[in-house]
Amino acid sequence: MEQDRVKTYVKGFDELIEGGIPKGHVVLVSGTPGAMKSSLAFYVLFNQAKRDGRKGLYLTLEQSRSSMVRQMARLGMDMDEVKDTLAVLDLGVINEGLGENSGPGSWLHIFKTYLGQLVAKEGFEFLAIDSLEVLETMSGIGNSRTDLFYLFEWMRELGITTLLISEILPDRILEGSYDEGYLSDGIIGLKMHLVREIEVQRRIRCLKMRETHHDTSYYSLLFNDGQFQIAKVISE
């Protein structure tokens, strides 16, 4: 059966993954600092909201909502354009919504219930969580494969497409130390690559995408005038 797909709207990238991310997948967006992981995830949700009218929720657990909104506006993604279709929540708002009973042992359970109700109520089709490492810390699940397995299964049960931002280096994620790479449905890796010892180039690669014939090569990731696009890498 043909799989419904979600466009990333990164020019040239969707063609490498059969038109987009399979709907309902949980996809890691992993990479080094400065590689624009958060910006890319926000960009996908922003364009789905603006171009297709599909509702999305961006959870920023590492910075405040106001900071994230200002940052994205400077990149040409103004929340005023999608105020009815894209929501941004930060950790403060989330904890307020969880209430006083969200102690260390119960935080994850209450968080799942709260988010599940929010998704059902608002009809969100897309979710981005920034980041997996903060979510693990807040929930106290550590890095056990069993805990991670149930976390990823819960995300799939939400029935929406999820982008999960991670600080794991893309070239190491499938070495065997990081179970997230095996439990996720897809991995989009970003990195800063040194070229000719004087220039740093952003690169993007689809390491994994279930139910998809995809190109696993690295490409240059460019951002100009509010548009992400890929190009062939600069030769060494």
What does this 3D model show about the protein?
The chain has helices at about 35-50, 65-75, 90-100, 105-120, 130-140, 145-155, 180-185, and strands at about 5, 20, 25-30, 55-60, 85-90, 125-130, 160-165, 185-195, 200-210, 220-225, 225-230. By secondary structure, it is an alpha/beta fold. It has a single domain (about 5-10, about 25-190), classed as 3-Layer(aba) Sandwich (Rossmann fold), CATH 3.40.50. The protein is globular, with a radius of gyration of 17 Å. The mean pLDDT is about 90.
Key attributes of the depicted protein:
alpha/beta, single chain, 27% strand, 32% helix, Rossmann fold
How many independent structural domains? 1
Q: What spatial form do the alpha-carbon principal axes imply?
A: globular
Overall average residue pLDDT: 91
Helix content: 25-40%
The oligomeric state of the chains shown is single chain
Uncertain ranges: none
Q: Number of helix segments?
A: 7
CATH homologous superfamily (4th level) name: P-loop containing nucleotide triphosphate hydrolases
Count of DSSP E strands?
11
The CATH architecture term is 3-Layer(aba) Sandwich
How much beta, percentage-wise?
Answer: 25-35%
For the largest beta sheet, what order do the strands appear in spatially? 5-4-6-7-3-8-9-10-11
Tell me the radius of gyration.
Answer: 17 Å
The string of secondary-structure elements, in order, is EEEHEHEHHEHHEHEEEE
Q: At the first level of CATH, what is the class?
A: Alpha Beta
Measured between the Cα atoms of the first and last residue, the distance is 42 Å
Which structural class matches the secondary elements? Answer: alpha/beta
CATH topology: Rossmann fold
Specify the biggest β-sheet.
9 strands, mixed
